[in-house]
Amino acid sequence: MRSVSSFDRTLAVTTLLLVGFGLIILYSAGQTDVPTKAHGVWFRQMVWSGIGFVAALVVYQISPRILEWVAPALYGLGILLLVVVLAVGTGAGTAESSHSWLSIGGRQIGQPSEFAKIATVLMLARHLSGLREPPRSMRDLLVPSIIVGVPFLLVLKQPDLGSALVFVGILFAMLFWAGARPLLLFLLASPGFGLLLGFSTLGWTHACGSGQSLAELISGRRPAVDFSFLAGA
Predict the structure, then answer these.
(1) Residue 163: other Cβ atoms inside 10 A
(2) What distance lies between CA 41 and its chain's CA centroid?
(3) Cα distances (angstroms) measured from residue 176 to each of 109, 147, 160, 166
(4) 148-174 confidence digits (pLDDT tens)
(5) 45-73 as b/e, with b when 16 or more CB fall inside 10 Å?
(6) pTM greater than 0.90
(7) Distance between CA 215 and CA 221 in Å, rounded?
(8) What gap in Å lies between CA 168 and CA 165, rounded to an integer?
C-alpha cells in the first residue's frame, strides 16, 4: 500500500485547479435573471468531484499489477457497453438524437464512453509496458491502433465526435510517453491531415503549392512563388 505523501503533487494541484475552474464556469452559467437548468448544477458537480477525489485515493492504493491484471476485463466490458448503448442508448440535451447514454427506467445513469476511456488507457498501458523497446515502425503501432480504434469507431457511430477524438488524443499522448519518435507519430497522423486538407480546397492548394515550391528549392530550381517577402522575417 502506497502512502498518500508519495502522491504526485503536481498532478494533484493541476487537477484541483482544473476542477475549480470548471466549477467557476458552472456557477457563472447558473447566474441568470430567470432560473434555468444550470442553476445549482455547480453544487452537484462539486459533490461528484469530491466523490471522484475519494475514489482516486482508493484507486491509488491499488497495486499497478492488479490494474494490469484486470485491464483486459475492463476493456472488454467497456467495448460491450459501447455496443449495448448503440442498440438501446438515448441522447441528451442538444444531442437528443444520439445514442450516448444508458438509461434505466427512463433515468440516465451514465455514458459508457467515459468508462471506455479509462479502460482503454489501462489496456494500452498494459500493452506498451510489456514492450521490450519503444515502437520503432508502423508495424509496432498496429496493436495500439486497434486497441484505441475499436472504441473510437463505436463512439463515432453514436455519433459523438468530441468523445471519439479523446481516444485519438489518448493514443498519441501514450505513444509519445512510451518513447515513439515524433516522425513516427506524424506518419500515423498523416491520413487525418490528408482528410482535413481534402475538406478544404484552399488548404489543399496551399499544401500542394508549398510542397511543390520546397521540391523546386531543394532541386536548385527557381520556385514559381516569390518568397522575397520572407527576407525581412
Answers:
(1) 19
(2) 25
(3) 34, 16, 25, 15
(4) 999 999 998 888 888 899 999 999 999
(5) bbeebeeeeeeeeeeeeeeeeeeeeebee
(6) no
(7) 9
(8) 5
